[in-house]
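Problem statement: downstream parser choked on a complex file, so we are re-checking the raw output for the acetoacetyl-coenzyme A run. The parser issue turned out to be on our end (a line-ending mismatch), but while we're here, posting the original submission so the record is complete.
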Amino acid sequence: MGRVALVTGGTRGIGEAISKALKAGGYEVAATYAGNDEKAKAFTDATGIKTYKWNVSDYESSRSGIAQVEADMGPIEVVVANAGITRDAPFHKMTPQQWQEVIDTNLTGVFNTIHPVWPGMRERGFGRIVVISSINGQKGQFGQVNYAATKAGDLGIVRSLAQEGAAKGITANAICPGYIATEMVMAVPEAVREKIIAMIPAGRLGEPDEIARCVSFLASDDSSFINGSVISANGAQFFA
Ligand code: CAA
């Protein structure tokens, strides 16, 4: 049996590619989703990857969901905190609700995902944490004060966890994807998206698999001395 890997938001978009890549790499994968039962069922039918439904923004749901995964599959040794949402609006139009929903899911959700597995990783002396941040956490983005704040926060989380976990065999790293061809990016108005693509020297959006391969590396034993790092995968759009 391979190591158990948990991927939040693991049935769609970048998360779907990550779940599949980890399964292909021999991991036992548990993919979480928040709401789309139909898509989750289709995902399990197509991949054989087990899915779990909980809201990452709720600590108790995360804790009990993770306990269920561990009862079913064994201790979680790899955590990929990928679940995230956007509620884009220029700051003068952004509502407190748009702010709070993004903070709750993208930032508190990362805490809620890692915190319940951390003690077990410390006890066993091994763990791999990968947080999916964003280019927009590095550079900021018009219309994304809320999202950029959470994605910058992710970098603070991994850099701090790296220092706490290093002596216990745990690594915590972040990946900052640029604009990747997923539903989230396709939801950006076409005219805006065209302007964004024009700013990517690679001349195209990234593919979910290009992020998944970074995760596979960071989850593996090969990355053992990489801790608190940030991998930018953005087609040369931005250099942190
Ligand atoms: N830079 C500078 N000015 C901009 C701008 C930009 N990127 N976008 C809009 N503006 C300007 C407009 O030209 C307009 O100016 P005027 O009032 O002088 O005409 C003003 O801002 C207001 O524009 P809108 O009326 O279009 O504002 P809106 O409320 O309808 O929409 C928006 C604004 C929702 C932020 C829209 O511009 C948008 O969706 N932008 C894309 C944001 C983005 O990149 N999101 C990333 C999503 S993908 C993702 O998040 C994944 C990842 O990690 C990369």
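For whoever reads this later: The longest strand covers residues 170-177.
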